[in-house]
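## Example pair
The file below holds two records. Each record gives the amino-acid sequence first, followed by its structure token line.
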Amino acid sequence: MPSKSLPKLAMVKAAGENLPQGAEKCRSRHVLVVDDEPLIRWSVAETLGEQGWQVTEAADAESAMVAFSRVIGERDLVFLDLRLPDSDDLHVLADMRRLSPHTPVILMTAHGTPDLADAARAMGAFAVIDKPFDMGDLVPLAERASGHQRAQASIGEPVQPTRRMR
């Protein structure tokens, strides 16, 4: 459970009984959604939560790293905004990859450039997506990243980055 000293960190548990018909009911899938914009964070969390993901939300880099480090090995996936109140570069991505090289991190940005995308992929980002993005694209991307993470972890290889999504 989040501590009272971290008000920007929230746990959102997926309600398996409320999943859409045909959706996979798997409570062991976890995602950390990091964005300082409450509406984007809520939209991503709701979209993935409706598909059975257990969601943890963070609004800044400090809260994101606390949440990430508390459950290393349980996180299947991270959606990480590039620009946060306390970070506007790739150091959070680098820290997450260092702590858990098999955890796919999808970088979200409204300020993307080809050089930034190349740098993020070189650091191990699974994908770089430009804001605004279609919420309908998130679930297939999350499933692909999660499946790729499990496959790579089972054979002991680092996760290979994918191309930039537009």
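Second record, same layout:
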Amino acid sequence: MSATLRTAFVFLTLPASLLAQDSNHAVTPADSARLVAVMKADLRRLVIAEEAFFADSVKYSSRTGSGGVTYNPSTGNALLFITVTPDGWNAVMKNSSIPTRCTVFIGSTSVPPAVKEGFPTCR
């Protein structure tokens, strides 16, 4: 297979989320809505991962990976921080392609825009 054909094949098989993150690619409202949905799904997975960690350790973690929560966000999403609070935790996530910020919390310490415990909210 020629180098040009191989490059074209790789480009055509890239997930849409990676294409939307190209700085030269204008993010459409549909792309933005999809990226927000992926961030919310990632935060729901984080809630599950934190609860699993709590079940094993009887505490929450502000870390991911070794010594913390087993969790990786989707490509393009960045978990800005996880903060452990006296009765839970909160987290903030961003995607590199859009200005929207999503948050989630467990316990009584919310981080705007989230207002309902365990439900990711974006603005």
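Notes on the second record: The first helix runs from residue 3 to 13. Residues 1-21 have pLDDT under 50 and may be disordered.
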